[in-house]
Every structure is written in structure tokens, then in C-alpha cells.
């Protein structure tokens, strides 16, 4: 290709970029280069420019597209120096500063809140106790936290109390307990969140390190007892000031708070809690941002003994005083005001200073699909979204992508986000539920969609996972004070960030989190945006959420508590005016209602903040797209009832369409005697029948099949794998679950990904050396290859099995597992069956054997609760599913629109939990996060801890295997007050010999060798993260992985 490069750099960037460009292309002018170049060479040049880019860099690249014109490919650096199509301005004019009257009221409030609270956020550090603590190398836990002392002092000073007398409030037990100082209303049902300027300032000061503790439910008053105050017996040195309060601090604070109160005189009271809560989201983020940023600076000279210090730092492994407290308060206030202004600008408009996707990447993403392919539905959906965006240029949109398995949902999600973006350079975050799936999606987007590497980054949080994935891709190419924040592990690139934002990020790698136009991330990172108790990570994730549209993959794949955590992200994205794409082929009405409820609550919060219908319209866009029906996009008035009715009708239409389609997955009901041995016998019978019906010819006289046995939990999976291996010595049995050594799990995933990618048939299986060798060893005519797997197989693994046996946990689990059968080949199964559903699951069989009844069995995983036991009809899948002549066609309709009693019971389980937080329950009561006035319960950490993204039940244990010749030694990571280390443990990790026909099982020496081949240190690759609930020990089955011994 031929390209033209134009430089509009300034200052030192001029010479720096000239050196790079001169090494790739000859000059055609003072700041112009023209050259023929390969795509690889251009990518290398692009990367070199981005690596050296600063805020003064501005280089544009244009390609001759053969139609008598030059097409802009990309811009590195300051995009504002070029127009959207790459033109350079003839003249420029400076934008006049906005007058105060033109600045929105809410933005002025946010800035004043952040600045005022910052000036007094560390008043409590003026105590003699705290100053002694900073100077003492033994850092003790505070009896009363300094931020709560700051609030108590602030309230006393507002009453006209002198600085010296104000400290005595710490000996007033009632004052020490008052979270919000206001007259109580005896008739009020709930205690509401801050409703005045003074209450908002107090909450900011109190919560800048952590939230309050509280009772167990909404409407309760937040408490300080477990969070801020350990004891009411406060020592005297807590109530003695180390020095006088600087006069300028208090005068400036009074000026700012008076200004804020006067500005919001009409916005005081219970009916305005939504306005104040919306302001607090931004102001609190700005305060945390400023506190972290300023505290990280090294002050030139440490404070002397008479001067109060704010913090310490390490110099040559020794803790020394760092910043004077007076300077710290003033500087944090200055930075917080600026950050609040900048964040307000980011949340107000989709246009911003951060880079979006390059023109070449966008062109590749939105390129139409082939009309003759199975992906042509994407063109219809894209056209409908484009028309809607043209008619509604300023309205955010919520999209439900319900296309079926293998129809290209991932690509359409991103295409929809680009079309709906209100910015010429879109920005998007794709949130996924699995680490390895995140890397797979990132790789797929780059290779399949042609996205420029510089436009995309991934965040996973696990360096070993990243190294293993990178090694596998190379191998394929050859063969053809706050809580301690864990390191955020990122890969990818980022252009220069705005100057105000850069100091907040610890490393250049972390900057890609907000700087990258396209972020493919585990949802664990973005989850922190909806967790205000996560402090620094909360702000980092919030900055990403407010500056990019959001794609949620498999949004119905979360259990109810985790779904609430996901819905908080939906609410915040709607609050920031972003578009959201939710993707799942089985998005039930209950889940869609919950997503919609979170969406409209975010919209409502935005309207309460903006106080302007032009900036926050009362209506929004709702779209449903899939590969079976015409797309529907409408302008919604944000009424839940109307949405439910419309969506239910859509589901009925989808189900009618599915009934007309050829059957790809047909199930039979496998009888189960309700005992543990009866369960294993039933699995064996189902495996034998399915192999007989689905085996295909591998070589003359030899038939093979690849089957999946889905078992809900690890212990059951290992036991089932061992039972099958013993009963079927001619079969090859693998066990895939999370309780395995990292390198072993990676090996299994790599082999299964290769063997079960069958988009082009079975030729690669026929040619596989290992499969050929295993089949050749067997004299029998039938050779089943069986993978016993837990739910880790259900989501994200793009595998195509010949058949499956399903131990059900929910209607969702049946549909998800069935989606791994006949996934790529899509061959009509005729009258044959390729799925068996067990009549009872293993947990029910255990309960029957032990004589225990009415204990939920469809949980962990599953949606059953004690209140819903009767709805599951004795746990009999013969009654819960709509069998016809002892067979069942499995498609998305089984989960959608009440397609089965199982699905109806699951929906009730979801709604029972989720409506406590979003939407309305059966009695019409609003959920905690949807409620107005804002419930004070949200000021505490409790509701966020009650609904975590990941279930933290049990104790996480980290184990290490070290190889000693042919033997393995096992070590557990033990922590105590004196340190932490690997401790050899002979008793809690025992070994069990591998079954002779264990498939995909590596011996310890083989695992160690694979670590070296992959470039992984064995101490990393031979780790396993296990969960212990009591005093469990573990059994390492050398063929099938690690299970708990209870």
C-alpha cells in the first residue's frame, strides 16, 4: 500500500517523531512523508510512534484507497489537530472560558463538594496520638479512625466551638455514634441518605477511606461501631491537638461550604437525595483520586517535630515523615476540585480528551457480513440501529443481543457499540466472566476483525494465565491505608492520557485501563466501579465506565448475588449516559427485567443530577436483535410494565420461530435410582447409549465419539470420572474443572480447544497423532473419548461435542451445556438422541441416601432457595421439563418465556433475590438501589458485601507442587503475624494413582517440563487455588485433579 504521513507535532515531539518517520519513509516536505509500505511495516511504525507519543505528538497516516482520494487510517497523539477525516485547520481560535452562569449547577456543586471536603478530610490527623503514631515505627490500629474524628471536629466547629474545645467531642458517646446529624422523623419508614450540602460534606469526609458498617437490611441506620470506632473509651492523646488549626484552612472551608449551601438552597431535603447521591458519586471519586495522587508525591523536606505531618514514605527501607498536613490539605483540595471538574466533563458528554478507535479499526468492525452467510442477520440489525441513531442522535440505548450459538454475537456486540456511539471515535469496554475467555476474545477480535493492536488492551489480573495464552498462540503459529490494592495486570497499548489523569496510575501498563479505546476485561476489574468500598480500584474502574460504552457478555450466566453486582455497572453506565449491549442467547424475562430496572434507575439518577431534560432526556432507546426475527428498536418511556409486556411478546415470537427449525439437539430422560451409586450407574448407561447412537467412523471398523458429562461440583466430577474410567476400560476419560494445577488445566484447555473446534469437520481429529495412537492401542471397535466437566465448560469454551450427559442445576445449565453439542457442524440429528438429562441430580441422590429432605439441591450452582423448594416438584426432571413422547428438543426456548416449569422456578429464584436491590418486588416495594429517596443503607459496605461478584464462601488456600525426580512434594501458603511462606504439608494433600485410561492427564514431571516449554516458572505453573470450608483435607487424583475430602 502507499501511505502519506503528516506531522503536526510541537516542541520536542517534532524531532522525536521525525527520527522515527525518517527511518521508515522518505520526506516529501518539511513535515510530510510518502512511501510504499507493507501492512506489517505500517503496524511496526504505528507502534513505534505510539510508544514515544506525548501530549505534543500529532501524526496522521493516510492511505491511497484507489478511488482518487486519500483515506485516513489513524492518528497518533493529539487528534484535535486534525478533523474527523484528517484535514488540518487553516486557522485556530482559542475557546473562551465559560462564565459561571454557563456552568451547570450540578457541576459547580460537585466541584464545591469535593474541594470543601478535601480541605477538612484529614483534620483528625492533627491529634497528638496520630502525630506520635507517624513518628513511631510500630503502626498501631486506631481506636477511632482519623476520618471520623475529622467529621466530629467539623460538626463542633460549625457550632462555633473553638479548636481546643472541639476535640472534647470525642468523649461524647452520642456524638461519636451519629452518622447523620439530623432530627429524626418518627413516621419515616427508612433512614435516608444525605439530603443537604452539610450532610454530603460529612459523608465525603467520613467515607474517603472506607464506608460505614450497618445492620443487615435496607432502612437501617449505618453504624460506625465496626468500621470507624473500635471503642468509646477514647484515650486523652486522641483529644489533644498537636498544633493549632491553620486559619486559612477553616476560612476557605467556611467560604466554600457557604457558597455550596447558597447555591443549593432549593435542593435541600428528603426529596432531593437522588441529586445529592449523584453529586457524591463524582465528588467522592474526585476526593479519593486527589488523596491518592497527592499522597504519592515526595515532599522536598520532611516536617519538623512541631509541624503536623500527613503521612510517611519509605527512604532506603526506613519509614520517614513525608508531607506537612497543612500543605497536604491545601493541595488535595486543589487537585480534587480540578479532578471533579474534569470528571464532570467526562460524565456530561461522550466527546472527551481520551482516544477512541482508529478509523481503520472502526471500518473493519462495521464492515457488512456476507449476505449468503449465516451472519447476514447482523446487517439487518446494524441497519436498524443506524437508522435509530440517526433519528435519536443524543439518546442512549440499551441493546439485548439474543442471537443463537455460533451466530457471531461477539462481533455484533462490538459493531452495535460502534454504530450507536455518539462520538466519531468510539470507545468500548467488553466485560467477560472468565480470565481465559478474556484473552480468547481479545485475540479473536484482533485476528478476525482486523482491529489495530494499538486500539485494544486486555485486563485479566493473572500473569500466569497471560503467559500461558501467549505461549499457546506462539506454539500454534509454529505448528500452523486503604485496603492493599492488588496489581492490575494489563496487556495492550494506550495513547497519552490527559495531564490531570496521569499521576493516578502506578505504572504505564495500568494507564491502558482508561486510555485504551477498546478494553477487553474480566468483569472482576470493572466490578470495582460498582463497589464504592474498593477505594482506588473503584475510581480507576469508574473512570473507565464513564468514558466508554459497555458490552456485557452472557449477562444471564451469573447467580443472583453476582447479577446484582453486574446490575450496579448497568446502573452506573446509564447514569453516565453510555450505551450498553447485553448479550445472551437465553436472556429470560426475569433477567431482562432486572437489567431494564437497573438501566432506568441510572437514567433517573442522571436526570436528578442534570436538572435539564436536554442533557438527560426522560426517554431512552431499547433494542432487541437476534438471528431469527427482524430487529426491534424503540424509544422507551422507561416504564417497567410496558417493557415487560413488550419483551415477553418478543420471547413468544422467538419461541414460535425455534419450533419451526430443524432439531439439532434431542434429549432423552435417563432414569436414576436416587442413591450415589444409582447416580453413577445412570451416568454409565447414558454414556453407553449416547456413544452407540453418535459414534462416527475414525478408521475401518473403528468408531469414536467425543462426549461431555456435565457434573455440578468438583467432588462429584472427579468421582464420576473415576467411576467411568473403571467401568469403561476401553474409553479415554478426562476431567476438567478449576481444582487443578494451573499448567494441567491449561494443557487440557489447549488440547480440547484444538480437537473440538470442528467448523471444518473432523479432518484435524483424524490427523491428530495422540488420537490416532490411542485408537490404535484398542482392539475393540468402539472408543469413546469422555470429558467429565464442571460448569467451567458451559460458558466461553467454544467446543463441539458429539453428545452430552447433563446433571442439571438449572434450566439455564441445560441449555448452556446443550450449546456445546453439535455447536459447529449443525447437523440435524434426525430421530437420534445426542443428549441425556438425568432424572435426579447428585445432591438429591445424596439427600435421599442420607434421609434428608426439603434441602435445596439446585443451588451452588443454581437459583433455588429454601422458600422455593416446593416449586421444584420433588426435583424430578421428568416433571420439571416438557417431555413429549419421552424426548425433548433442546433450544433457547426451554429457558425463555416460561418454556418449562424448571425455567419458571428459576426465574422466581432470580427475582426473589434481585428485586431486593433492583426493580420492584411482588408487593410493589422498590429495591434498595432503585429506591427513592436514596436509602442510607447504601452509605455502608454491607449491601455490596452481601452481593459480591464472586462467592467468597470458604477459605481460599494456595497450594504448590514441587517435583523431586519422579515424586511430588506439596506445600501450602501459610500466613501468620510473623510472615508468610510455603510450608510442606504431608497430611492435608494426599495422592491417588491415576486410572490407566485417564486422558489428558500429565504426571508431575511432565507438568514441570511443560512449564519450561511455556516459559513459566514452575513455582507459578504448579500452583492450585483451592477452597476449604471447615478443616478439609484434599486428595490429588493424578488422573482427574484435586478434590476435597470432607
From TrEMBL:
SUPFAM superfamilies: P-loop containing nucleoside triphosphate hydrolases (SSF52540). Residues 98-293 form the HD Cas3-type domain. The keyword Glycoprotein does not apply. The keyword tRNA-binding does not apply. InterPro entries: Cas3-like_dom (IPR054712), Cas3_I-F_Cas2 (IPR048823), CRISPR-assoc_Cas3_HD (IPR006483), CRISPR-assoc_Cas3_HD_sf (IPR038257), CRISPR-assoc_Cas3_yers (IPR013395), P-loop_NTPase (IPR027417). Transmembrane segments: none annotated. It holds the Pfam family Cas3-like_C_2. GO terms for biological process: defense response to virus. Keywords: Antiviral defense, ATP-binding, Helicase, Hydrolase, Metal-binding, Nucleotide-binding. One of its GO terms (molecular function) is metal ion binding. It comes from the Bacteria. In the N-terminal section; belongs to the CRISPR-associated nuclease Cas3-HD family. In the central section; belongs to the CRISPR-associated helicase Cas3 family. This is CRISPR-associated helicase cas3. It comes from uncultured Desulfovibrio sp.
